[in-house]
Amino acid sequence: DKQLIGIALYYPRYSPWTGRGVWLEDLYVTPEYRGTGVGVALMARVAKQTVLEGSNRLEWWCLAWNEKSISFYKKLGAIDMSDTDLKSNEFRLDGNQLRQMADKCPMQTQRPMFTIREGRREDCQQMALLLTELAAYERQSPDQVVGHKQLEAEGFGDPTDRQFRTFVAHLDDNDKQ
Fold it and tell me: In which domain of life is the source organism classified (predicted)?
Protein backbone atom coordinates (compact mmCIF):
# COMPACT_ATOMS: atom_id res chain seq x y z
CA ASP A 1 0.00 0.00 0.00
CA LYS A 2 1.31 3.40 -0.96
CA GLN A 3 0.45 6.33 1.28
CA LEU A 4 -2.25 8.55 -0.22
CA ILE A 5 -1.54 12.26 0.17
CA GLY A 6 -4.36 13.71 -1.91
CA ILE A 7 -7.71 12.97 -3.49
CA ALA A 8 -10.00 14.51 -6.10
CA LEU A 9 -13.55 13.09 -6.08
CA TYR A 10 -15.79 14.07 -9.00
CA TYR A 11 -18.83 13.04 -11.04
CA PRO A 12 -20.65 14.03 -14.25
CA ARG A 13 -23.47 16.56 -14.28
CA TYR A 14 -25.64 18.05 -16.96
CA SER A 15 -27.09 21.48 -17.70
CA PRO A 16 -29.64 22.16 -20.44
CA TRP A 17 -27.85 25.50 -21.04
CA THR A 18 -24.24 24.35 -21.23
CA GLY A 19 -24.45 20.58 -21.79
CA ARG A 20 -22.13 18.04 -20.23
CA GLY A 21 -19.99 19.02 -17.29
CA VAL A 22 -18.15 17.65 -14.29
CA TRP A 23 -18.67 18.51 -10.63
CA LEU A 24 -15.61 18.34 -8.38
CA GLU A 25 -17.06 17.34 -5.02
CA ASP A 26 -13.81 17.24 -3.06
CA LEU A 27 -10.18 18.16 -3.55
CA TYR A 28 -7.93 17.49 -0.58
CA VAL A 29 -4.18 17.38 -0.05
CA THR A 30 -2.74 16.50 3.35
CA PRO A 31 -1.30 19.60 5.05
CA GLU A 32 2.33 18.50 4.85
CA TYR A 33 2.14 18.17 1.04
CA ARG A 34 0.35 21.42 0.24
CA GLY A 35 2.44 23.70 -1.95
CA THR A 36 4.33 20.79 -3.53
CA GLY A 37 2.29 20.59 -6.75
CA VAL A 38 -0.04 17.79 -5.63
CA GLY A 39 -3.17 19.97 -5.79
CA VAL A 40 -2.28 21.39 -9.20
CA ALA A 41 -1.56 17.88 -10.52
CA LEU A 42 -4.89 16.55 -9.21
CA MET A 43 -6.80 19.50 -10.70
CA ALA A 44 -4.99 19.11 -14.03
CA ARG A 45 -5.83 15.39 -14.12
CA VAL A 46 -9.53 16.04 -13.47
CA ALA A 47 -9.50 18.80 -16.12
CA LYS A 48 -7.86 16.41 -18.60
CA GLN A 49 -10.51 13.75 -17.91
CA THR A 50 -13.26 16.36 -18.25
CA VAL A 51 -12.00 17.33 -21.72
CA LEU A 52 -11.44 13.71 -22.79
CA GLU A 53 -15.06 12.88 -21.93
CA GLY A 54 -16.37 15.73 -24.07
CA SER A 55 -17.50 17.88 -21.17
CA ASN A 56 -17.15 21.63 -21.49
CA ARG A 57 -16.92 22.73 -17.87
CA LEU A 58 -15.58 21.74 -14.46
CA GLU A 59 -17.29 23.30 -11.45
CA TRP A 60 -16.98 23.17 -7.66
CA TRP A 61 -17.78 25.02 -4.44
CA CYS A 62 -15.30 26.44 -1.98
CA LEU A 63 -16.22 27.67 1.48
CA ALA A 64 -15.99 31.47 1.66
CA TRP A 65 -13.67 31.47 4.69
CA ASN A 66 -11.12 29.26 2.90
CA GLU A 67 -9.02 32.09 1.46
CA LYS A 68 -6.01 29.88 0.66
CA SER A 69 -8.12 27.60 -1.52
CA ILE A 70 -9.86 30.54 -3.19
CA SER A 71 -6.46 32.02 -4.05
CA PHE A 72 -5.27 28.62 -5.33
CA TYR A 73 -8.29 28.23 -7.63
CA LYS A 74 -7.92 31.77 -8.99
CA LYS A 75 -4.24 31.10 -9.76
CA LEU A 76 -5.39 28.11 -11.82
CA GLY A 77 -7.47 30.48 -13.95
CA ALA A 78 -10.83 29.46 -12.48
CA ILE A 79 -13.68 31.93 -12.68
CA ASP A 80 -15.15 32.85 -9.27
CA MET A 81 -18.93 32.74 -9.64
CA SER A 82 -19.63 33.65 -6.00
CA ASP A 83 -22.96 33.77 -4.27
CA THR A 84 -22.18 35.41 -0.96
CA ASP A 85 -25.60 34.53 0.48
CA LEU A 86 -24.53 30.88 0.53
CA LYS A 87 -21.25 31.63 2.32
CA SER A 88 -19.42 29.75 -0.40
CA ASN A 89 -17.80 30.48 -3.71
CA GLU A 90 -18.56 28.58 -6.88
CA PHE A 91 -15.70 28.23 -9.35
CA ARG A 92 -15.67 27.20 -12.98
CA LEU A 93 -13.09 26.25 -15.56
CA ASP A 94 -14.54 26.28 -19.06
CA GLY A 95 -13.52 26.94 -22.63
CA ASN A 96 -9.90 28.03 -22.92
CA GLN A 97 -9.24 27.90 -19.17
CA LEU A 98 -10.38 24.27 -19.01
CA ARG A 99 -8.26 23.27 -22.02
CA GLN A 100 -5.22 25.13 -20.67
CA MET A 101 -5.53 23.34 -17.34
CA ALA A 102 -6.01 20.00 -19.11
CA ASP A 103 -2.92 20.64 -21.25
CA LYS A 104 -0.82 20.84 -18.09
CA CYS A 105 -1.46 17.16 -17.44
CA PRO A 106 -0.07 14.13 -19.20
CA MET A 107 -2.24 11.01 -18.90
CA GLN A 108 0.12 9.52 -16.33
CA THR A 109 1.29 12.15 -13.88
CA GLN A 110 4.44 11.28 -12.02
CA ARG A 111 6.61 13.77 -10.20
CA PRO A 112 9.80 13.07 -8.24
CA MET A 113 7.80 12.73 -5.00
CA PHE A 114 4.31 11.56 -5.98
CA THR A 115 2.16 9.92 -8.65
CA ILE A 116 -1.41 10.80 -9.71
CA ARG A 117 -3.57 7.84 -10.75
CA GLU A 118 -7.19 6.73 -10.78
CA GLY A 119 -8.50 5.66 -7.39
CA ARG A 120 -8.97 1.93 -6.82
CA ARG A 121 -11.16 -0.19 -4.57
CA GLU A 122 -8.18 -0.98 -2.35
CA ASP A 123 -7.69 2.78 -1.72
CA CYS A 124 -11.08 3.20 -0.05
CA GLN A 125 -9.85 2.98 3.55
CA GLN A 126 -7.21 5.65 2.97
CA MET A 127 -9.66 7.73 0.93
CA ALA A 128 -12.14 7.64 3.82
CA LEU A 129 -9.40 8.86 6.16
CA LEU A 130 -8.52 11.73 3.80
CA LEU A 131 -12.19 12.70 3.51
CA THR A 132 -12.49 12.64 7.31
CA GLU A 133 -9.48 15.00 7.52
CA LEU A 134 -11.18 17.21 4.92
CA ALA A 135 -14.39 17.29 6.97
CA ALA A 136 -12.45 18.45 10.03
CA TYR A 137 -10.64 21.07 7.94
CA GLU A 138 -13.98 22.34 6.59
CA ARG A 139 -15.37 22.49 10.15
CA GLN A 140 -17.84 19.69 9.42
CA SER A 141 -18.59 16.70 11.61
CA PRO A 142 -16.34 13.77 10.66
CA ASP A 143 -19.29 11.53 11.60
CA GLN A 144 -21.05 12.69 8.42
CA VAL A 145 -18.36 11.24 6.12
CA VAL A 146 -19.28 7.97 4.44
CA GLY A 147 -17.17 4.99 5.46
CA HIS A 148 -14.83 2.99 3.28
CA LYS A 149 -17.42 0.26 2.66
CA GLN A 150 -19.88 2.80 1.27
CA LEU A 151 -17.10 4.31 -0.87
CA GLU A 152 -16.35 0.82 -2.21
CA ALA A 153 -20.00 0.08 -2.98
CA GLU A 154 -20.85 3.42 -4.57
CA GLY A 155 -17.60 4.11 -6.39
CA PHE A 156 -16.21 0.70 -7.24
CA GLY A 157 -19.22 -1.64 -7.26
CA ASP A 158 -21.52 -2.10 -10.24
CA PRO A 159 -19.77 -0.28 -13.13
CA THR A 160 -23.13 0.79 -14.57
CA ASP A 161 -24.05 2.54 -11.30
CA ARG A 162 -20.86 4.30 -10.21
CA GLN A 163 -21.78 7.41 -8.25
CA PHE A 164 -18.34 9.03 -8.42
CA ARG A 165 -14.80 8.66 -9.66
CA THR A 166 -11.52 9.64 -8.11
CA PHE A 167 -7.94 10.47 -8.80
CA VAL A 168 -5.49 10.06 -5.94
CA ALA A 169 -1.98 11.24 -5.29
CA HIS A 170 0.30 8.75 -3.61
CA LEU A 171 3.84 9.00 -2.35
CA ASP A 172 6.44 7.14 -4.31
CA ASP A 173 8.19 4.35 -2.37
CA ASN A 174 11.45 6.23 -1.84
CA ASP A 175 9.66 9.33 -0.52
CA LYS A 176 7.74 7.87 2.44
CA GLN A 177 8.34 9.76 5.63
Answer: Eukaryota
